[in-house]
Write a structure and sequence with these properties.
two-stranded antiparallel ribbon
Amino acid sequence: MEQDTFLKEISMCRELSSKNGGKCNWGECERCGVIPLLYKLAKGEVYEKEDEVKALKKSALQ
């Protein structure tokens, strides 16, 4: 995945999360796997542990 696409997708998650109180049309941010998937596709980094995923989501959505 190209860097500009990655940044655009993360930006969309951030915007939807802030506008809709942690929800978008796909579901709730806390249960969503989009951000870890984007990091896997764009950077080759895999986050599987629950605490790592929570920290990743928190940093990406700020």
